[in-house]
Amino acid sequence: MGKRGNWMLIAYDDAGREGWVEMARWWEYSPWDNFLKGRVARLLPGLKKDGYILHAGPAETSPQATPLSGVEELQLIEVRGDRVLVITDSGLRGWFSWRDGDGRFLIAVGEKISPQKH
Predict the structure, then answer these.
(1) Which residues contact 40 (CB under 8 A, 6 or more apart)?
(2) What is the pTM of this model?
């Protein structure tokens, strides 16, 4: 969530409690947008119905595009706050929330996409 010198600010529970930890030399801090961009992901099961719907733009109020099946692999292309632009296995393109208002993930994140696939 933040970094000052060798210290990182982390949220350590669902209530949003925060604390500072000293980084070991092998840690590398990466903001969420840098970490997520270029990875593959899948939606977590059991989301609310609207969690499976792609939108035409990054705003939650953007027109709805297409519902996702929940089993497709998603290529994470661009991150804007809590929203992410994806391309699905079937070639659909759109935006949805990758985390909820409490910071809980709505996706399972995998490896980086190889340059040939992207």
Answers:
(1) 73, 74, 75, 76, 109, 110, 111, 113
(2) 0.71
